[in-house]
Amino acid sequence: MAEDRAGSAPPASLKPDAIGFVDALVIGLNATSPAYSVAAVIGPIVALVGIYAPGVLFASFVPMLFIASAFYYLNKADQDCGTTFSWVTRAMGPWAGWLGGWAIAMTGVLVVGSLADIAVSFGLLAVGLDSWAENTFVRQLLTVLLIVVMTGLCVIGTELSAKVQNVLILAQVAFLLVFVIVALYRVYAGTTSFDSVRPSAEWLNPFGAGGAALTSGLLLGVFIYWGWESAVNLTEEVEDSASAPGKAGVWSTVILLVTYLSVGFAVVAFAGTAYLAENAGEEEFIFALLAREVMGGWDWIVLLAVATSALASTQTTIIPASRTALSMARRRALPAHFARISPRFRTPDVSTWWVAAIAIAWYLVVSQISENALFDSLTALSLLIAFYYALTGVACAVYYRRHLTESMRNFLLIGLGPVVGAGLLTWLLVRSVMDMSDPANSYSGTSWFGLGPPLVIGICISLMGVVIMVVLRFRTPSFWHERRGVVDPGLVHGKES
Amino acid sequence: MSVVLGYDESPGAARALRVAIDVAAAFDERLVLVYGAAPPGPTGEEYRAHYEAIAQAGRAGLEHGVASAEAAGVSATVEVIDLSPAQALIEAASRYGARVIVVGSWGESPIRGALLGSTPHKLLHLSTVPVLCVPTEA
Fold first, then answer.
1. Are strands B98-105 and B76-81 parallel, antiparallel or unpaired?
2. Are A323 and B47 in contact (CB under 8 A)?
3. Span A468-494, mean pLDDT?
4. Which own/partner pairs from A7-15 qualify as long-range (CB within 8 Å, at least 24 positions apart)?
5. CA–CA separation, A144 vs A376, rounded Å?
6. Under an 8 A CB cutoff, do A5 and B80 touch?
7. For the domain bounded by B2-135, which CATH number is listed?
8. Per the database record, which ranges form the UspA domain (chain B) (predicted)?
């Protein structure tokens, strides 16, 4: 036999020197796609809590911070697969792990449709084709085409876009900040056509609008920070090479917070509460409308920022979803053909196309049955996000349970923080489920089986998951024989000392 | 010196393997089978699952390659390198003092190749040793 050096490639090195400050900053921002998130969520949040929108945006960061800590420590312990699916399986057994993996893959799959829809709508608005954007058939056709093209790009695995994306993402934050500066300038100069109000520190009070509104607002708010934990994980991956990536992780957090808070302030101050209350039914386009009012002929800058942000995150959403499916299939938690790697392009082509197919089917079905489908499915997504984040938080404490009492730091960051985060998210989840069981509280205001559409969507996805899981349990039992474990003590002390 | 071959299990690589074995046998040199395992696309938490799947596919393919080479009486070495295919070949070529790099080409139009990022195309521009491109059988 020939000498086999196949194992000689160092398994722990993901090209550590390859990631510089700008790259790390971009990855952190990219995963959360600020312009798209803010465009999707600012309308609904303002409609819910009025002037206290900045407070809710800020408060949403708290559970995220705790959960990001869980992601950081779990990623430290188990880098070889590195998904919620893998971690929860290790800490809490295959059943919980499978459901976590299902939730994470589904969130990815389900958000692609609304991302592509936003990219198409804002793209058309940016180039002045407003009538196309309002024509449902044209918009849906373009959205489906866009998903297919973006999936094709993911399968081919083009590296062409990396540099372009860096520029687009930094530009998108810059454009949002331009919007904020112009809006606030016009508020203070008194040149707005609305009932503007001067910003006040009181707006940062998340409890201003009462408990129920805060709960719904927080659940949406979690969505805008969704993905931010990648920035935290990234800092670990390259920790030893230089301090630049760690700083980039912190900076991307600061930039996100500043961007979201200032956009919140700008929107509320510029439009005034009366206008926002009147247009509460127009959440989808409130940001587009305001962009036009604030920027005049330059509104295409903001629209383009949102469109490119949504476009970029279509791609960055398809890739993790398909990789999660790949990871699950490799451990026999999904049928083996999902693990197929295209010999030509070296990408998981089967799972990638499946992600696209489900995303398209989902998008078309939901837009048929619900008028305000995108926002109903966004709310349903928030339920799934809250679910798998909470699961990850608990898994962290469980996986490290033998090390929690070793130091104050361990206890706070690995135990208490993630568990509090998980508790907050579970509380949000339960409260929202109670809220959503009343159809009047959904965006479309319609009733499905006597419940609100987002809840029905969420329940359907969970039930599908459970059914598929049980079927797979009997067809491919090997994954279900995996046993719970705890973190390797050597690893904890090796890293901590 | 040695002969470096870019090998995966694609149809294009099968003929390249035969040609590379012929070349290595003719010069009586070692054949180095190289597989660049870096996945395309951005890094992320799920990157490693993708990376491992590719490396595993690569190792499976390389074993078949080694078996064919040894059947032809050529000694073979396997290299799974954590780089994109073109970079991996260049790196292996310099490390093993390659006489020639052998790669299979897909025989598609130059525009398609440029868009999809053709490995032979990159090698022709970047390599400092001769590159032998083997078209797929018609």
1. unpaired
2. yes
3. 72
4. A9/B37, A9/B55, A9/B80, A9/B81, A9/B82, A10/B82, A11/A80, A12/A79, A13/B82, A14/A237, A14/B43, A14/B47, A14/B48, A14/B51, A14/B82, A15/B38, A15/B82
5. 19
6. yes
7. 3.40.50.620
8. 3-135
CA distance A71 to chain B (A): 10
Residue A488 CA to chain centroid, in angstroms? 30
Q: Where are the domains of chain A?
A: 20-477
Closest-CA distance, B88 to chain A, in angstroms, reads: 12
CATH number among 1.20.1740.10, 3.30.1310.10, 3.40.50.300, 2.30.30.230, domain A20-477: 1.20.1740.10
> Does the structure show a pLDDT above 80 at A350?
yes
Map out the domains of chain B as residue ranges. 2-135
The length of chain B is 138
Whether A456 and A449 have beta carbons less than 8 Å apart is answered as: yes
Q: A252 is written with which tokens?
A: 């991307």
- Residues of B with Cβ-Cβ distance to A82 under 8 angstroms: 45-49
A4-41 residue pLDDT tens: 333 333 334 444 445 566 766 776 777 777 888 888 78
Which of B40, B78, B106 is nearest residue A2 as measured by Cβ atoms?
B78
Query: Which chain A residues are closer than 8 Å to B43 by Cβ?
Result: 14, 19, 27, 234, 237
Predicted local distance difference test score (pLDDT) of residue A15: 45
What confidence score (pLDDT) does residue B107 get? 66
Question: Has residue B54 got a pLDDT over 50?
Answer: yes
User: What confidence score (pLDDT) does residue A145 get?
Assistant: 92
Tokens of A146: 């866009």
Binned at pLDDT 50, 70 and 90, residue A158 comes out as: low
* Residue A199 predicted with pLDDT over 50: yes
Structure tokens at A204: 């940062």
User: In this predicted complex, what is the ipTM?
Assistant: 0.73
pLDDT value at residue A2: 39
**In B, which residues are within 8 Å of A74 by CB distance?**
none
CA distances from A187 to A181, A190, A294 (A): 10, 5, 10
The pLDDT value recorded for residue A357 is 92
What is the mean pLDDT of the segment spanning A348-357?
88
DSSP string over A14-69: S-GGG--HHHHHHHHHHHH-HHHHHHHHHHHHHHHHGGGHHHHHHHTHHHHHHHHH
Distance between CA A389 and CA A397 in Å, rounded? Answer: 13
CA distance A371 to A445: 9
- Please give the C-alpha separations between residue B35 and each of A156, B25, B87, in angstroms, as whole numbers: 18, 21, 10
Q: Residue A149 is which amino acid?
A: V
Full strand arrangement of the beta sheet holding B76-81: B76-81, B30-36, B2-6, B98-105, B131-135
- Tens-digit pLDDT profile for residues A271-283: 777 776 676 666 6
The whole-model pTM stands at: 0.78
Give B108 to chain A, closest Cα distance, Å: 13
Task: State which amino acid sits at residue A234.
Answer: L
| Secondary structure (3-state) at A235 | helix
Interface of B with A (CB under 8 A): 8-10, 37-55, 57-59, 61-62, 66, 69-70, 75-82, 84, 106, 116-117
